[in-house]
Amino acid sequence: MFTLTSHIEIGQYAVKPSAVEWKSSTCDYTDTCTITLPLSPFVRHVQHITEHADGVAESVSGSPMRNFNEVPFRKGDAVRVCVGYDGRTEDVFRGFVSTINFANQMLVECEGYSYQLRDRHFNKSYQKTTLKQLLTDLCAGTDIKLSAACDNVPLTDCWFKNAPGLKVLEWVQKELCCRVWFDGEWLYAGASKYVKANPDRPTADVKVRIGWNTVSADDLKKQIAEEVQINIVEKDSSGSTKKTKSGNKKYSDIKEVKVRAGLPSDYLKKVAAELQQEKDCESYEGGITLFGEPHVWKADRLTITDERFPERSGNYFAEEIDGSYGNGGLRRTVKLRYYGKNA
Fold it and tell me: In angstroms, what CA-CA distances link 235 with 156, 219, 254, 261, 269?
């Protein structure tokens, strides 16, 4: 019999939740988490709350009411969520309080380290720089660390005037066709998502046996390869274009991915090859739902064995994690991308 265990810190407080949900992806730089707490002892008489313009909350009947400003949590408080079984816990989320909502229970909504860029306005102009230098400047003064796995792509003529910090990350995604995501406080940006962004996180090769240590694998379904050729297209200010093909194989259809001009050819080939691989792969992809153990984090490699449907066996990449902790137990739904039988 497993006993659920949690260690959750919000600001200077350790709390015991009613429920926790979190989401983390290699396709999105915003990790999220919602911590559900009982209203007592944090707020009293909440069924009759009226909030005045001065921020003081009182009950309609006039009974004593705690000021909302006395709630012990504040927007921007650091958050750490660890969950597991029998006293053994693993980090599943690190970030900051973004919103506190009051309903039948208190909902503390949290955002990963992208939160520290949300209210930042970036003013910088570069004639020549690199992707690493751009991100280093963007994150200066925050707790964000730049992953050593980032591609050091040379850049020219980059101008940012009062640009919101998250818009700069969007610019990197769009203009460079970069994968951009956080692993805790570590920020990664590069051509490939098949990397280890956080040097403090142990390299994991998780063993999964369908029907043995899984809740469900019903969403792990056959994916058919697409007959599409990926071409990376650069267009400069004069209107001239340059194409980087993903390979020499002929396809019935072409998909063009536009990027800014002047990026190195080896970087563009790497981008094109990975996008092409995703189109060419004929395999099983989708999601599986696991218990709390084995622990799985995004970008982990899963070696899956399926005795009932052996064709589903192989190596997979954990692209996205949706986790939950509460009365229903500890669960992780993992969105997978196929590596191959022997990758």
Answer: 14, 40, 17, 6, 16
